[in-house]
Amino acid sequence: MKKVLIVGAGLAGSYMAYAMGKKGYEVSVLEKRPDPRKTNYGSGRSINLVVSHRGWTAFAYAGIEEAIRKIVVPAYGRQIHDLEGNETFFQYNIEGKAIHSISRSELNKTLVELAEALPNVSVTFDAFCEHVDFSTGTAHFSIGQETLSIQADLIVGADGAGSAVRGAMMKQPRFNYSQDFIDSGYKEVHIPAAEDGSPQLNIDALHIWPRREFMLMGLANTDNGFTGTVFAPFDGEYGLDHLPTGKDGLRYFEKYFKDAIPLIPDLEEQWENNPTSALACIRCNPYHWAGNTMLIGDAAHATVPFYGEGMNGSLEDVRVFLELLDEHGDSDMNAVLDRYTELRVPAGNALVDLSLRNFIEMRDLVADPSFQLRKRIEQKVQKNHPDKWTPLYTQVKFTNIPYHDAKAEGERHDRIMAQILAIDGIEERWDSDEVEQEVLRLLTEMA
Ligand SMILES: Cc1cc2nc3c(=O)[nH]c(=O)nc-3n(C[C@H](O)[C@H](O)[C@H](O)COP(=O)(O)OP(=O)(O)OC[C@H]3O[C@@H](n4cnc5c(N)ncnc54)[C@H](O)[C@@H]3O)c2cc1C
Q1: Percentage of the chain with pLDDT > 70?
Q2: Of all atoms in ligand 1, which is nearest to the CA of residue 219?
Q3: How many CB atoms lie within 10 A of CB 142?
Q4: Hey, what's the torsion of the CAs at 347, 399, 160, 13, to 10 degrees?
Q5: CA distance 70 to 223
Q6: Ligand 1 center to residue 303 CA distance, Å?
Q7: Which of 30, 320, 357, 438 is deepest in the core (most CB within 10 A)?
Q8: How far apart are the first and last CA of the chain?
Q9: Which among 51, 155, 314, 319 is the best mutation to test ligand 1's pocket, defined by most ligand atoms within 8 Å of the CB?
Q10: Residue nearest to atom 30 of ligand 1 (CA)
Q11: Distances from the Cα of 350 to the Cαs of 113, 160, 407, 408, in angstroms?
């Protein structure tokens, strides 16, 4: 197995191109968009992303961690902004570990550059994949008025949520697929640095203005500005569909995110001109076909962005696949791809479930006193018994525990904490040894 064809030079595709190139494969990448280094990078797509432990593990696996560390901004916790403008900081993790914000375009350009620098990797832009023929292992592209067909030993669908490669699989019998839009969408607004170049918000935090049905989120950029994203339902009085003009946007901010208005001098203009985007979850099974084609990233499991794990999970797909190749070699691709599907379909499904769950947590529960109490109790138990209690958020963002195992453990924690929060006078006694002992007892009972 020597020739690898990757469809899509987004985050997962360009990372895989580099990592496979380093292993000595002959890699061709074909991407429908123009070269991101020469044009304005995909307008309407999220501007920055959170890199978590899984992303770092993938970068470290390929030996490019240091190159990526140069272009990130760390966040050590969530800073919650309430309706009155009060702010509270919640550290993510007792060891003071951070998640990292990164510009999507910087990361994509860096990965494309790294891949292209390898002599055995070629990247072609403006090449749209039309179809894949599994019987011959051939993908067909249109490049302007021309057409191009490429045969390869392995075709990788890294072509995102609207994947053409997955589209070809969907025509096959017994290929399972679902797509569900949620009733909320998002709009981004840029929060610039202050005139003197300093950040207008605490640069060490991910900022959230939770308002039950909707929220504003702020993620730092390397220039001390922040990307603000409003996630909100499309319908209802303050639904995104009913707020088309800049004046509507300002009225909305005045009611719900008042303290953010002075941070965004051109709020009305941005609100009116920036696109409103929809959010969908995609699941499918299997993640490979015919022993010669596989799906990675959003092509396999696009999800809503509320855990900030879509890219991290996509990079993890690639890392897990490469480790399977390390272990088994490439002489029996059928077996490697079977195992890939076996490992990654449950992980992809759990990633989607966890992302939906975190939507509720971020917009709703972080503003809820009993949620905050639960976090305090969990942090105390984790601090005193790190071998027994790892909160779900920590498992997802700061470990490589498979998403489906993290999800199952998180559900066990829910059952335990429901009993703990029902203890009489828990608000006053949460810090007591007695409560801690009860958590430990329930952990054993519900093992
Ligand atoms: C608002 C928002 C915020 C997000 N925040 C985070 C975050 O904080 N952390 C995180 O981990 N994830 C985040 N995500 C998710 C993340 O963006 C995706 O999971 C990630 O981009 C998936 O990478 P990918 O390479 O699979 O797909 P993409 O990045 O979408 O790349 C797919 C590529 O394929 C190309 N392509 C598509 N069709 C074809 C075709 N027919 N022929 C050739 N090329 C084609 C596309 O042009 C594109 O370049 C966020 C998503 C959104 C919407």
Answers
A1: 96
A2: 8
A3: 14
A4: -120
A5: 13
A6: 10
A7: 30
A8: 45
A9: 314
A10: 160
A11: 32, 18, 7, 9
Look at residues 336, 340, 348, 339 and name the one whose alpha carbon lies nearest to residue 177.
Answer: 348
How many angstroms is it from 11 CA to the middle of ligand 1? 6
Instruction: Report how far residue 20's alpha carbon sits from residue 323's, in angstroms, rounded to the nearest whole number.
Output: 11
Question: Is 109 a residue whose pLDDT tops 60?
Answer: yes
User: At 71, phi and psi to the nearest 5?
Assistant: -120, 30
For the CA atoms of 241, 244, 250, 254, the dihedral, rounded to the nearest 10 degrees, stands at -20
Residue nearest to atom 39 of ligand 1 (CA): 159
CB 143 within 8 A of CB 124: yes
ω into 210 cis (within 30 of 0): no
Has residue 104 got a pLDDT over 60? yes
Residue 297 structure tokens: 């990233």
**Domain boundaries of the chain, sorted by first residue:** 3-73+102-179+280-359, 181-278, 368-445
Task: Indicate the top mutation candidate among 29, 311, 317, 398 to test ligand 1's pocket, ranked by most ligand atoms within 8 A of CB.
Answer: 311
The conformation of residue 34, written as its DSSP 8-state character, comes to P
Residues 6+ apart with CB under 8 A from 446: 412, 415, 416
CATH superfamily of 3-73+102-179+280-359: FAD/NAD(P)-binding domain (3.50.50.60)
Report whether 29 contacts 124 (CB < 8 A): yes
Q: Which atom of ligand 1 is nearest to the CA of 128?
A: 42
Pocket, ligand 1, Cβ cutoff 6 A:
7-13, 30-33, 46, 49-50, 128-129, 158-160, 162, 164, 186, 297-299, 305, 308-312, 314
Q: What is the DSSP string of 164-210?
A: HHHHHHHTSTT-EEEEEEEEEEEEEEEEPPPTTS--SS-TTEEEEEE
User: Which atom of ligand 1 lies closest to the CA of 10?
Assistant: 31
Closest ligand 1 atom to residue 101 Cα is 8
Q: What is the DSSP letter of 39?
A: S
Distance of alpha carbon 289 from the chain centroid? 25
Place of tokens 């958020």: 393
Locate the DSSP E strands across 224-368: 226-233, 276-285, 288-289, 293-295
- List pLDDT tens digits, range 323-374: 999 999 999 999 999 999 999 999 999 999 999 999 887 766 666 888 889 9
* pTM for this prediction: 0.95
Which residues are paired to 181 by β-bridges? 280
